[in-house]
Design a protein that fits this description.
6 helices; about 220 residues
Length: about 220
């Protein structure tokens, strides 16, 4: 199925609204909750699980895709079944004038599963998956540390991955308008005055996740055709 993204600019959209102009509600979140664990479910089964008609389920699903709330589908793989038994986090301090080199080198390392630019003592957090602890040591000392852009590293080996979700949903549907009792322009309750932000160095903000994979042929899409 082709790209159904809305032609309107993302800057014209308000958070919590979908392409057909309806505010996200509890039914949309129920659909996303089901898809979180059953991405190949049929439209009929999805409708039954959520408690709505098949036509309603199909319309809502397509709206979520068109608006970009659902950006794609992919397979979930068990790393240990592929021999990648060790997961580790590597915190990196980057020389601020060399972010471009850091990003380019990191993109060539297949062991890197995820990287995020962070606030705090370090500049970036890298998540890696390798066969054993020795591989962690070799990757850090022989591949990361020698990079001229890397000033320092700190490695933490993950002992047990207690919880991992494909994505997180709001605990309760929230109106896209200002929260009740909050005047426009007033700070939200979740903002903390003691949070300190440091302006990112040039090029630091350019590290982005890769493009999501194309949707695999599944039962849900098959019933849409």
């Amino acid at each position: 199925m082709g790209d159904l993204s809305s032609p309107e600019s993302s800057s014209d959209r308000r958070p919590g609204r979908i392409g057909i102009g309806l505010a996200l509600d509890s039914v949309h979140f129920k659909i996303l909750d089901v898809l979180r664990t059953q991405g190949r479910i049929s439209v009929a089964a999805l409708a039954e699980r959520v408690g709505i008609s098949r036509a309603n389920a199909y319309t809502r699903f397509e709206a979520l895709r068109a608006d970009g709330v659902i950006s794609g589908f992919s397979a979930r793989v068990d790393p240990s079944r592929m021999g990648l038994d060790i997961c580790a986090l590597v915190f990196v301090t980057v020389r601020q004038e060399m972010w471009k080199q850091f990003r380019a080198t990191l993109a060539q390392m297949p062991e890197v599963e995820y990287c995020a630019i962070t606030t705090g003592e370090h500049d970036a957090m890298i998540q890696i998956r390798v066969p054993d602890v020795g591989a962690v040591h070799r990757l850090v000392t022989e591949q990361l540390a020698p990079i001229p852009a890397v000033r320092a590293t700190e490695t933490v080996v993950i002992l047990d991955e207690v919880l991992r979700r494909p994505y997180v949903l709001p605990s309760a549907p929230r109106s896209p308008e200002s929260p009740s009792g909050t005047s426009p322009g007033a700070p939200a309750a979740s903002q903390f005055g003691m949070t300190r932000f440091i302006r990112a160095a040039e090029g630091r903000g350019g590290l982005q996740r890769g493009t999501p994979p194309e949707d695999p042929p599944g039962d849900l899409e098959a019933q849409q055709r």
